Amino acid sequence: MNLSLKAIMECIGPFSQYDEWDWGREVYDWKRPNLRVRVIMRGGYVKAVEELDPQDNSRYGTTLRVLWGDASP
User: Fold this and answer.
1) Tens of pLDDT along 26-37?
2) Are 37 and 30 contacting, i.e. CB atoms less than 8 angstroms apart?
3) N or C: which end of the chain has fewer CB within 10 A?
4) CA-to-CA distance for 5 and 55, rounded, in angstroms?
């Protein structure tokens, strides 16, 4: 099953932050008062969707759980 960034944005709105990581990964973050979600993409495809600790404001955040896919490099 393919998951698109567009479909995610339709569900939770525009992302708060974009970043480029190593291994050609693109990362999108959504930060809300009680929700923080990270989408990791590679080659234009969603690789993983993670729920992060909304209280952790660091760049990488603390992953609470992987909601979809595989977050390994």
Assistant:
1) 999 999 999 999
2) yes
3) N
4) 24
